[in-house]
Amino acid sequence: EDWQTNVGDDAIPIWFKFWHLNLTNPDEVVAGIEKPSFEEIGPWCYKELRSKINITWADNGNQVTYWTYKYFLYDPSCTAEGLSENDPIVTTNLVYMTFLNNLANPDKDGIDTYYHLWLNELLWNTIAYVFNEPLFVTVTARDLIYGYEDPLFAFLHDNVDESIPADIYIQLNLTNEQETYQKTKFTTQETGKDDIKNIANYLYWNGETQLNCWKTPEANAIYGGDGNYWPPKIKKQDTLIAFVDTAYRRAKFTYMGDSSYESIDCLRYGLDPTELLNVTNYPDNDQWYAYGYNGLINITRCALGCPTYLSKANFLDCDQAVLDAVEGLVPVRSAHDTYADIEPRTGLTMNIYKRLQINTKIRPVFMTYENITYPSIYMPITWIEESGYITHDLAVEFRHTVYTVEDSAEVMGWLGAVLAVLFGVMALGLSIAVLFARRRLAKESREREGLIENVDTSHM
User: Fold this and answer.
1) What whole-number distance in Å separates Cα of residue 438 and Cα of residue 429?
2) What is the DSSP string of 142-196?
3) Cβ proximity of 270 and 338 under 8 Å
4) Residue range 115-150, pLDDT digits in tens
5) How many Å apart are CA 97 and CA 305, to the nearest integer?
6) Which of 144, 182, 74, 187 is nearest to 427 (CA)?
7) pTM, full prediction
């Protein structure tokens, strides 16, 4: 039961917090007379609740398939004083950037080269005028994360194609199990039963074994762990591989230093620095379309052409030019970096902070009803922190059992018991769905339904 859900007073908590980057001078940015100035507001705090449903075991217990019903409950007690979910936030209109980028860059190659097609831009700006789609919009703090109705998308949903979402969201917040089956797809992972080295490795993610975002088949392959469970006996020189669902790709994680959590000795791991380098500094990142500045992860092709770039919070570890183009962001490693404290003997994650900033890129437009003259700038939207940790009581039990037991077989037996509690509960992959990126993946997976046997598809 504990493996299946974290709903309940005694369950391991997962916290979901976000800080919005509120644009304070939108008119001046449009006119091109000031660079964007941002006010960081937050955090807004939510408890993240997850339940695995429609669970199916296969391959003699070596694989498990399930859907994840995930929703968020607002917690004002850990929200910054004076904040409300209804606070207005000025931000970049992602619908505007999606249509503009698709029309002006028909190849949608994710490269920072744009074909200024006058007729296409004129067409888009006519549409933008009719549907009141300005470059910047004002939405509530909650709606910016969990969704708000866009007039153009609503029109297309009602009159063209019902599969087009009527709202824009960053994080899907499900309301019931039926909606889980309608809006998400299944996950299949290895359990590590026969080989503990394979624990939590993805076989299917969101109903997919292969994406269609990246430059090579290897880059599109879904493999690696979920970032929270690792093989036992980890050493400082080990490089760990995880599939980061937020970025639609695998990534390397390397040793950052020693740490301790609840008096448990850990190794602290973080994102390998090479993952954030451009192709000039690290040619292997050509497969990820890393043609811009260092520190940015380009997921434009995964977001249906919306110019979307992930980074560490407050542009931490980005090139200085990215930070200099805006005002109001001050990166601090202790507050803005991502890390996991892993107990090396068992490979269990004891404490984890995942911090991620979502950005879009604005650029000059030749034909525009707003007379836009701004330069190309990476505009921050929001940054999100997901955190999880084992409870004090579980840490006491861990220390008493693992630190006093010499028989490795007995330790591994205890590990199996702990995994029954922790597996999936601390899986902290963000479900970023910039515009309808996830809907596209779901559509592709529906076309390939029937690939997996032993899965109850009655709810798909």
Assistant:
1) 14
2) HHHHH-EE-HHHHHHHHHT-TTS-SEE-SB----SHHHHHHH---EEEE--SS-G
3) yes
4) 445 556 666 666 766 777 788 999 999 999 998 888
5) 9
6) 187
7) 0.82
